[in-house]
Amino acid sequence: NGGLAYVTSGPRKPSASGNGVINVIDMAKAETRPADAVTKTVSAGCKPSRVVVSADGQQLWVTAGGSNALLGFSAPKLLSEPGHALLARVPVGALPLGLMLVNHGTRIVVADSDKDNQPGVGPSLAVVDVAKALAGQPAVLGYVPSGATPRQFAMVRGGSTLLVTNTNSGQLESLNAAKLP
């Protein structure tokens, strides 16, 4: 609704392996009193990267690259009960970066970058069932091969085509979102 923004931050020292956080920012305060704009800071796994919010604003999804996980949070509880805001933890592939809600918010596609080139892993796109993740069930529906270091997403053509940037292979990949697992 434009009232809040969610920003991830890693540890203050780049070499630190500690948990990162989600900063909940009051946008009105950010415009008038920036020093008071961060209303909550909540733990968000190891090396959180990107954030996406569900269409209804109730869930917040975060990739945690150092945890190789997708984390789901209750957006209202980030403010009211931060210690109980974590709703889902889904193991995905190596070093997830970008993420995108697709198919009317029923699926999340996660860019498993494997930017550290872990042996035998390789880059891919993990497809996650949102309802299963929120129910605590195994939620990864499958993996789609990708170019080297998938990173960011964009939707085109009314939400039917998913574009993926593959940084290290210098490619833009196009997928039919309706045909994902």
Could you please describe the fold and organization of this structure?
The chain is mainly beta. 9% of the residues lie in helices and 50% in strands. It has helices at 27-32, 75-80, 130-134; strands at 4-9, 19-26, 38-46, 48-53, 59-64, 69-74, 86-91, 96-102, 107-112, 124-129, 140-145, 150-156, 161-166, 171-176. A hairpin with a 4-residue loop joins strand 8 (96-102) and strand 9 (107-112). The longest helix is centred in the N-terminal third of the chain and has 6 residues, at 27-32.
Key attributes of the depicted protein:
single chain; 181 residues; mainly beta; four-stranded antiparallel beta sheet; 50% strand
Describe what is shown at a glance.
This protein is mainly beta and 181 residues long. It has helices spanning 27-32, 75-80, 130-134; strands at residues 4-9, 19-26, 38-46, 48-53, 59-64, 69-74, 86-91, 96-102, 107-112, 124-129, 140-145, 150-156, 161-166, 171-176. The strands form 4 sheets. A 4-stranded antiparallel β-sheet has the order 4-5-6-7.
Approximate strand percentage: over 45%
- In this structure, how is the largest beta sheet organized? 4 strands, antiparallel
The oligomeric status of these chains comes to single chain
**Structural class by sheet pairing and helices:** mainly beta
Please tell me how large the radius of gyration is: 16 Å
In what order do the strands lie side by side in the largest sheet?
4-5-6-7
- The residue ranges in which pLDDT falls below 50 over 5 or more consecutive positions are none
Mean pLDDT: 91
Overall shape: it is: globular
Helix content: under 10%
| Strand segment tally | 14
Q: What string, H for helix and E for strand, traces the elements in order?
A: EEHEEEEHEEEEHEEEE
Work out the helix count.
Answer: 3
What distance separates the N and C termini? Answer: 31 Å
